[in-house]
Design brief:
Rossmann fold, binds nicotinamide-adenine-dinucleotide, six-stranded parallel sheet, 19 helices, alpha/beta, 13% strand
């Protein structure tokens, strides 16, 4: 009989995972402690913007006409415990307030609620990004709390999906990594992922600590690559070089590669910043802090980018933001998402507002989330409206919509046709031809 799967925590990761599991043919029950989120999902609506997710969800949510009916949602732990053979834990692991370490309270709460409901054989699979050592600790808690005792096992299966590509990444992962303590756990996970494995996704079996470390190591590498090119942008600016040309040239070396080498205002979001900080904090606890001191530099290069962008904007409007209208194009931390967690774009917008600028923000999908976080900024319904009266325009999230804007039309409504490209993603020639003063990070002024 096909495995029954539950997904605990139905945010960016969990909602996508639940829908993908239903697509792979399993009966799925999703649980969240947020009843509003569950009510939305039950109606086949997605609580965030993620391309393709609503279609996938509606193909499977029970009660929707024409759906497979394989996907349901609940807030009942009892129901989840009785239903599932495999329970995926996908709850959030944010940074602790006031320190670098990971806040494990949501994961701990999920385990404490789930374990007492496990009366028969079950595999609990952690997917959240956690500090190394968590799986071993949680396995002990499970053994203690689950009425079925040894029939309940733990595995760790870190997730590598990218927001904006979450559906595709979940259905066709570039690798599946599992940390297991028994052959039975490995076999069950091979069954869960039989379809992507058959399609060729590599299946990497490891112990608990290695599986946990794979995720934080991968994110640390990516963060390092971004901060590396941003450090090169700083040097290029000092030396009069062009970081875009430099990235293209070094990227031809296959050992370096071209991806993740776009200089700009740096990384943000709900993962990279908090993951590298939690990794440093955990390494400190383990007595291996020296190994990761370079991540402190990666973090500080990244955070410097935001301040640098603010300085360039201030310079562009003549040295003070007072009385100046600043347009910010982009609010999300990356395109094709509505996620504004630790968004560099909003951070820059907020800093300029605090320094007296009149900031107007436009984003294709992130407006509601941005408004909730920064209610004092102005928000415009379109890019054109946002640019009206601007003394400087900042391009801070690389949405396709912004690359397709007509610079000539925008020049007509701006007070001063001046743009700073914080993502090195616009066509400089096109903007300059339309009468704009175009400046980008790490590139010479034309
Ligand atoms: P999120 O905040 O969007 O979703 C977490 C969900 O868990 C929320 O809906 C919340 O209500 C729910 N929740 C909290 N406590 C709960 C509990 N005790 N029981 C049941 N539900 C609970 O977070 P996310 O972005 O989906 O991230 C989840 C985890 O996945 C994190 O560890 C993150 O680092 C990791 N991750 C995220 C991504 C990504 O792109 N978002 C990618 C890979 C890994």
């Amino acid at each position: 009989m096909a495995l029954k799967i539950t997904v605990i925590g139905t945010g960016y990761l969990g909602a996508t995972h639940a829908a993908a599991m239903a697509e792979l043919g399993f009966e799925v029950l999703g649980l969240d402690i947020d009843p509003d989120k569950i009510a939305l999902l039950q109606r086949g609506e997605v609580p965030m913007y993620e391309p393709g997710l609503e279609d996938l969800l509606r193909r499977h949510v029970a009660g929707i006409e024409g759906s497979s009916g394989r996907l349901r949602f609940t807030t009942s732990w009892e129901e989840v415990g009785a239903f599932g053979d495999v329970h995926f834990v996908c709850v959030n692991t944010p940074q602790k307030h006031g320190e670098y370490a990971c806040d494990m309270s949501y994961v701990d709460a999920a385990f404490e609620a789930l374990a007492p409901q496990l009366h028969g054989p079950a595999l609990v699979v952690g997917k959240s990004t956690v500090p190394v050592g968590s799986a071993a600790r949680l396995a002990e808690r499970l053994a203690k709390l689950a009425p079925a005792g040894e029939q309940v096992e733990l595995a760790w299966n870190p997730e590598f999906l990218r927001e904006g590509f979450a559906v595709d990444d979940t259905l066709h992962p570039d690798r599946i990594v599992v940390g297991v303590a028994s052959e039975r756990a490995e076999e069950l996970l091979r069954e869960v992922y039989a379809t992507p494995i058959a399609e060729g996704s590599p299946f990497v079996v490891a112990d608990f600590p290695t599986a946990e470390l794979v995720k934080t190591a991968a994110n640390s590498f990516l963060a390092t690559k971004i901060s590396f090119i941003n450090a090169m942008a700083e040097v290029c600016e000092a030396a009069g070089g062009d970081v875009v040309k430099l990235a293209e040239a070094i990227g031809h070396d296959e050992r370096i590669g071209r991806k993740f080498l776009r200089a700009g205002i740096g990384f943000g979001g709900g993962c990279l910043p908090k993951d590298i900080r939690a990794f440093m904090a955990r390494a400190g606890e383990l007595g291996a802090d020296q190994a990761l001191t370079f991540l402190r530099e990666v973090d500080s290069i990244n955070m410097r980018r935001r301040g640098h962008m603010v300085e360039l904007a201030r310079e562009a409007v003549g040295g003070s933001f007072l009385g100046k209208v600043v347009t910010v194009l982009g609010a999300t931390f990356k395109p094709d998402s509505d996620d504004v967690r630790d968004s560099p774009a909003l951070n820059v917008a907020g800093q300029i507002h605090l320094q007296g600028g009149q900031v107007t923000v436009y984003d294709p999908k992130g407006m509601d989330n941005a408004r909730r976080l920064f209610p004092t900024l102005n928000y415009a319904p379109t890019a054109l409206e946002a640019v009206r009266g601007a003394h400087v325009v900042l391009h801070l999230t690389e949405w396709r919509e912004f690359r397709e804007l007509d610079p000539a039309r925008l020049a007509d409504v701006a007070a001063e046709p001046r743009i700073l490209d914080g993502r090195n993603a616009l066509d400089a020639e096109l903007w300059r031809k339309a009468g704009w003063t175009y400046r980008a990070l790490g590139r010479p002024n034309a």
